[in-house]
Amino acid sequence: xxxxxxxxxxRRRRRKYSxxxxxxxxxxxxxxxxxxxxxxxxxxLNANMLRRWVNCAEQPESAAAPARPxxxxx
Length: 74
Hints:
It comes from Variovorax gossypii. One of its GO terms (molecular function) is sequence-specific DNA binding. The protein is mainly α. The chain has a domain at 19-61. The protein has three helices and no strands. The protein is flat, with a radius of gyration of 19 Å.
């Protein structure tokens, strides 16, 4: 029997969330008096992941550029 096709039991797949879902949760976190921990628990997310989404949303576009300088042209 070829077992290379079967996935091991209990293996998790990486979840993908839509931009609309992320934006909704980010807006909810930015409301005064709202706990980000409560939002993560209510949505079954990891608190670190939501905090990363919020931090990325709060950064200006220029800060999101790579920190490494580009190589000189040939």
